[in-house]
Amino acid sequence: ACIALDGWLVPVEQSIIKRGLTVPFLYMGRTHWDNPVNYENLDTLIAASTASAEKLILDGTKHFDYSDTPQFNTTSSKFGISGTMDLDELRILLNSRIVSFFELNLQ
Q: Residue 67, SS3?
């Protein structure tokens, strides 16, 4: 099983993207990347995957929201490196989705 937290798929070789994944996959990320190729690659990867694959887009998040940065440094939003989603809501959502994904796919 594999989870990508706002992963960057642009450098992944096209042969891998077009082949898809054979293990369950969950992608959680922000609504927009400056380079549209990232989500084009992700959509192709998901469509080609033979195992379950899901893309969960979280409004009001930025890349650093998928790390511990905003949880330990509340000024991160003032510097523009974290989004507007409530930190408690984000932490609960990420934790619950990650745990439930692995419980479903690793047992």
A: coil
Q: Is 2 helix (H, G, I), strand (E, B) or coil?
A: strand
Which residues does residue 53 pair with via DSSP β-bridges, in sequence order?
25
Q: pLDDT tens-digit profile of 37-76?
A: 999 999 999 999 999 999 999 999 999 899 877 677 677 7
Q: How many angstroms separate the CA atoms of 1 and 49, rounded?
A: 12
Look up the domain containing 45 and give its range. Answer: 2-106
Total domains in the chain come to 1
Q: How many CA atoms lie within 13 A of 37 on its CB side?
A: 9
Instruction: Give Cβ neighbours of residue 89 (< 8 Å, ≥ 6 apart).
Output: none
Q: In which region does residue 10 sit, left (phi positive, over 0), alpha (psi from -120 to 50) or beta (all else)?
A: alpha
